[in-house]
Write a structure and sequence with these properties.
Shape: globular
Oligomer: single chain
Number of strands: 17
Radius of gyration: 19 Å
Helix content: 25-40%
Strand content: 25-35%
CATH architecture of the largest domain: Alpha-Beta Barrel
Number of helices: 7
Length: 300
């Protein structure tokens, strides 16, 4: 996998080949880091990063949950991202900022370890299929909100997602769906969930899910452009089985429509509202909808 010629690390741009990490990196042993997933898109005005500041604000929030004292401001991290994209001449792709506890300390209390912050970017196409996908209900539930801070993007949390994703692929599904500790619908391994019934759009309420930036984007687009308010509430598995439409959202997944759950087709698969939102989202991130241009940070 080509990660580009340059990465930004701890305040400066360096060659990717020089970005070495110690085997005694604390995050490598314990998952004690936080991260973001961000996309940039090729537009008529050049490369643009979607909701860059919002992502970097969430990175700072996630870091605070893990008591990582971030040595860089949101603005520093935004400018560093644009610097990496310019240096790598990347027109469209994926951006991965990470802040973690590094060298200098072993044991479960990471205080005293170095803080390591880096940003990498690479070309990465569709994460899931552009066509509707098959989904299976994972035997692993979403992390309990009294075990971990569910709305923070902490590296170690994603073992839960890895195991669910492995289960899905081992059972011939394209993606997994996780329930929460009460058996309610939660989210995918790396995606938020929406269901549509009788023209009303629903999504699981916050508490056991990530407060997704794409999730918030779709809720606003549905309200502004389609006149559809999203109802945030507890949803049962049968709400998905009986839905007219359903889709995942996420930076990597963008808007991915669900074809079936556990082998049961969802609705008639006409997906009228889902397709409208999918197309609206594409227009926004690719710079074809001037109304939402404030969400784009142009590289040049």
């Amino acid at each position: 996998m080509d990660f580009g010629d340059n990465v930004w690390r701890n305040g400066k741009l360096i060659k990717s080949e020089d970005a070495k990490t110690s085997l005694m990196n604390h995050a490598l042993h314990y998952g004690s880091g936080v991260f973001e997933g961000i996309r940039c898109y090729k537009t008529e005005r050049g490369t643009a990063v979607f909701r860059l500041q919002d992502h970097m604000k969430r990175l700072q929030y996630s870091g605070s949950v893990l008591e990582i004292k971030m040595p860089h401001s949101v603005e520093d991290l935004c400018q560093a991202t644009l610097e990496v994209l310019r240096a790598n001449k990347l027109e469209s792709g994926y951006i991965r900022p990470v802040a973690c506890f590094g060298e200098g300390k072993m044991g479960l209390n990471p205080h005293g370890a170095d803080i390591d912050v880096f940003i990498a970017a690479w070309a990465w196409g569709k994460y899931l299929s552009d066509d509707p996908i098959t989904v299976g209900t994972s035997p692993w539930i979403r992390i309990h909100p009294r075990s971990l801070q569910a709305d923070a993007k902490i590296n170690g949390h994603y073992v839960n997602s890895i195991m669910s994703s492995q289960w899905a692929h081992n059972n011939n599904y394209q993606e997994a769906l996780l329930l929460d500790y009460n058996g309610n619908l939660a989210e995918g391994p790396g995606e938020n969930l929406f269901v549509i019934k009788d023209g009303v759009m629903y999504t699981p309420e916050l508490g056991t899910i990530l407060n997704g930036i794409t999730r918030a984007t779709i809720m606003q687009l549905a309200k502004d452009e389609l006149g559809i308010e999203t109802v945030e509430k507890k949803l049962l598995p049968e709400d998905l089985v009986n839905a007219d439409e359903a889709f995942f959202t996420g930076t990597a997944a963008e808007v991915t429509i669900l074809k079936s759950i556990d082998g049961n087709q969802i609705g008639t698969q006409e997906n009228e509202i889902s397709n409208k939102l999918k197309n609206l989202y594409a227009d926004v991130v690719e710079g074809r909808f001037a109304k939402y241009d404030d969400w784009l940070s142009y590289v040049n």
